[in-house]
Amino acid sequence: MQYPNSISKLIESFSKLPGIGPKTAERLSFYVANKMNEDDVLGFAKGLVNVKRELTTCPVCGHITDQTPCYICTDGGRDRSILTVVEDAKDVIALEKMKEYKGLYHVLNGVISPINGIGPNDINIKALIERLKDEEIKEVIIATNPTVEGESTSMYIAKLLKDTDIKMSRIARGLPVGAGLEYADEVTLLKALEGRSEIK
After folding, report:
1. The dihedral sign for the CA sequence 80, 84, 88, 89
2. Domain Toprim: where (predicted)?
3. Against a cut of 0.90, is the pTM above it?
4. Which residues lie across from 170 on neighbouring strands?
5. Is 154 buried (19+), middle (13-18) or exposed (0-12) by CB count in 10 A?
6. CA–CA distance, 180 with 188 (Å, rounded to integer)
């Protein structure tokens, strides 16, 4: 069936989003056309435009921000001796939701992935090395995801810091609270065993 041109273009636009297949894109497009009032549609469109126009990357840590440097980098209450390295901005937000970590961040905006043609120079590693020349940083916590690419990136950074006085650590991995053993994959179980701690 031939859709009106405006619906076809909207379906095509929604289809470009990750995790949105043709059927979902079609359903969203018809929802916008038939269920949303004009003010909501204009607000949605304005939100999309503002995200592209107003957000930038922090020149210090690489996190998304609407001010430079970002709120975290300019927060005087942060522990400037600890730096956590993450893959992308979503990881910063996840860690901040805990309200426990008070150190700084460095966002790589990717991981090393030779199979996809992504090397160390294609992500934010050079800026990380420059930051680590700052004498205040005493510990680097690597918090890349437990994937092949995340592990490779972690090892690459560890190799770069091997001959420095900076303490290197890796976030623990294992079973999530409330999860059953039968639902865990082999790698998760292995990491949980390796990261076991003594009961006192």
Report:
1. negative
2. 81-176
3. no
4. 142
5. buried
6. 12
Share of the chain above pLDDT 90, in %: 67
Task: Locate the domains of the chain by residue range.
Answer: 77-170
In the 8-state DSSP scheme, what is residue 65?
E
Query: Beta strand 56-57 with 104-107: parallel, antiparallel or unpaired?
Result: unpaired
Residue 12: closest CA among 42, 24, 53: 24
What is the model's pLDDT at position 171? 84
Q: How far is CA 44 from the centre of its chain?
A: 24
pLDDT of residue 179: 64
Q: What's the burial of 29, exposed, middle or buried (CB within 10 Å: 0-12/13-18/19+)?
A: buried
> What CATH number is given for 77-170 in this structure?
3.40.1360.10
What are phi and psi for residue 11, nearest 5 degrees?
A: -60, -45
Give the pLDDT band of residue 28 (cuts 50, 70, 90).
very high
